[in-house]
């Protein structure tokens, strides 16, 4: 998987992880993949719900050492 | 531009208790909203996730009132401030956000006086509006007994400190599965005695005093009498407290509009008979004028005018559906089939209350998040 862009939102509380994810997504073209890093627990359900409502695809969502890692493909 | 007003959980609780109109804009995601939200008789509520409002709030302006205050809430507060500021910019006047979000709402305890004792003294209901849990402080001559204390022990400590009260006894009516008990921690802090029904304490890892029928507790200069009545059914050890011959603290056995559920340790079948016996025999022998003070409410419709929860026992015999199931088989079905989902993390919560798990503070908070589902509605 080619990661086109990374948003590092570690240490930031909502709404910032999604605000920054949304902004980064606007700079990608359909099919490209964005990686998002976050530590805010709420970012997990919120990002999943947001990608669903915006027509992107959440390819992967995992947690490593307290950091959530999301792979989102632009729809 | 004017600034967004912060509203604390205490202010929100007062607002709801005083029955003032309020509009809640909940900006959490739809799943969180569906599972648990702010409720009140005069509370109107509307949900749109904050991430649908990042480009502006124009889409929801028509849904918002201009004749009552609007409070924006989210999980922790960050997104609610963000959205509230957008609303102010869009021209809405009376906008605030909930400080600390639903997390703070879930943990706020609001003391309400629910009655006097015969020889002086009072009984207070500590209302945890966010979870529909109630605990009690019975005060006599500067001494207190607390029943079913919540995890946020500072609320009781501050209350006691303000009135120069010494906390003597901490009683849990049963081993809780829906919230983490503060009883043991508080007993340790104030050097008081922690009491638990022995049949619910078979696996606990700490020393405790037995809450048993026949062992009355008395405290305070005017001697408040607390009589334990063994009343199994929600758990095998569930014990009801008769306070001052007037108040019946029913724990999770009997609520105002519903009854307890006998399945929180996976033993629904075993305990249905006990529950039936408690509600249909033991309680029937008690004075109908007793004031029932339960450990939960399920619906804001149960709130009295002053925001408290209580009911006359005789009235409940008449109007609580769970007390009016004549047929035993029907009753068995009601309390063991088609039950609502189990409370969040109920198994882990029991382990914490037994001393077998010691999670960090934020893990405890996480375990308790969400709605309370201890009741069965007939």
TrEMBL record, chain A:
PROSITE patterns named in the record: UPF0033 (PS01148)
Membrane among keywords: no
A GO MF label: transferase activity
Gene3D superfamilies: TusA-like domain
InterPro entries to which the protein is assigned, alphabetical: TusA-like (IPR001455), TusA-like_sf (IPR036868)
Alphabetic keyword roster: Transferase
Domain of life, per lineage: Bacteria
Keyword Transferase: yes
One Pfam family, short name: TusA
Similarity comment text for this entry: Belongs to the sulfur carrier protein TusA family.
Protein name per its UniProtKB record: Sulfurtransferase TusA family protein
UniProt source species: Paenibacillus albus
From TrEMBL, chain B:
One example GO MF annotation: sulfur dioxygenase activity
InterPro entries: Metallo-B-lactamas, Mito_Persulfide_Diox, POD-like_MBL-fold, Rhodanese-like_dom, Rhodanese-like_dom_sf, RibonucZ/Hydroxyglut_hydro
Keywords recorded for this protein, A-Z: Hydrolase
Pfam families: Lactamase_B (PF00753), Rhodanese (PF00581)
Gene3D superfamilies cross-referenced by the UniProt entry: Rhodanese-like domain (3.40.250.10), Ribonuclease Z/Hydroxyacylglutathione hydrolase-like (3.60.15.10)
Reactions accelerated catalytically: 3',5'-cyclic UMP + H2O = UMP + H(+); 3',5'-cyclic CMP + H2O = CMP + H(+)
KW Hydrolase (keyword) present: yes
GO biological process, one term: glutathione metabolic process
Boundaries of every Rhodanese domain copy: 18-114
Record function comment: Counteracts the endogenous Pycsar antiviral defense system. Phosphodiesterase that enables metal-dependent hydrolysis of host cyclic nucleotide Pycsar defense signals such as cCMP and cUMP.
Official protein name in the record: MBL fold metallo-hydrolase
Source organism (scientific name): Paenibacillus albus
């Amino acid at each position: 998987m080619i990661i086109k862009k990374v948003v590092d939102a570690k240490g930031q509380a909502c709404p910032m992880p999604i605000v920054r994810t949304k902004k980064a997504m606007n700079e990608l073209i359909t099919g490209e993949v964005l990686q998002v890093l976050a530590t805010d627990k709420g970012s997990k359900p919120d990002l999943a719900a947001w990608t669903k409502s915006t027509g992107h695809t959440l390819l992967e969502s995992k947690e490593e050492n307290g950091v959530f890692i999301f792979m989102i493909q632009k729809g | 531009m004017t600034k967004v007003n912060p509203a604390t959980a205490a202010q929100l609780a007062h607002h709801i208790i005083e029955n003032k109109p309020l509009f809640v804009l909940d900006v959490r995601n739809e799943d969180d909203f569906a599972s648990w939200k702010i409720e009140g008789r005069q509370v109107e509520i509307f949900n749109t996730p904050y991430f649908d409002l990042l480009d502006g709030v124009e889409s929801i302006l028509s849904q918002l009132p201009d004749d009552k205050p609007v409070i924006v809430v989210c999980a922790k507060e960050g997104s609610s401030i963000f959205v509230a500021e957008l609303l102010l910019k869009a021209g809405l006047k009376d906008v605030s956000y909930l400080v600390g979000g639903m997390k703070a709402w879930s943990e706020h305890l609001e003391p309400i006086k629910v009655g006097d004792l015969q020889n002086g003294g009072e009984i207070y209901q500590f209302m945890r509006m966010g979870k529909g849990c109630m605990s009690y402080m019975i005060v006599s001559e500067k001494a207190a007994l607390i029943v079913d204390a919540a995890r946020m022990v500072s609320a009781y400590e501050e209350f006691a400190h303000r009135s120069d009260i010494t906390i003597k006894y901490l009683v849990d009516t049963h081993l809780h599965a829906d919230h983490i008990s503060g009883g043991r921690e508080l007993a340790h802090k104030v050097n008081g005695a922690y009491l638990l029904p022995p049949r619910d304490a078979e696996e606990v890892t700490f020393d405790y005093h037995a809450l048993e029928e026949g062992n009355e507790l008395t405290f305070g200069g005017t001697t408040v009498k607390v009589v334990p009545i063994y009343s199994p059914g929600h758990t095998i050890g569930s014990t009801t407290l008769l306070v001052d011959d007037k108040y019946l603290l029913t724990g999770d056995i009997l609520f105002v509009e519903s009854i307890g559920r006998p399945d929180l340790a996976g033993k629904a079948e075993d305990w249905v008979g006990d529950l039936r016996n408690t509600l249909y025999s033991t309680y029937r022998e008690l004075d109908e004028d007793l004031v029932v003070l339960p450990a939960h409410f399920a619906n804001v419709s149960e709130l009295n005018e002053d925001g408290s929860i209580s009911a006359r026992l005789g009235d409940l015999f008449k109007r609580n559906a769970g007390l009016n199931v004549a047929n035993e088989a029907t009753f068995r079905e009601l309390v063991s089939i088609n039950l609502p989902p189990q409370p969040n993390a109920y198994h882990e919560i029991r382990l914490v209350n037994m001393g077998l798990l010691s999670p960090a503070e934020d893990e405890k908070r996480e375990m308790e998040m969400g709605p309370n589902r201890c009741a069965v509605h007939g």
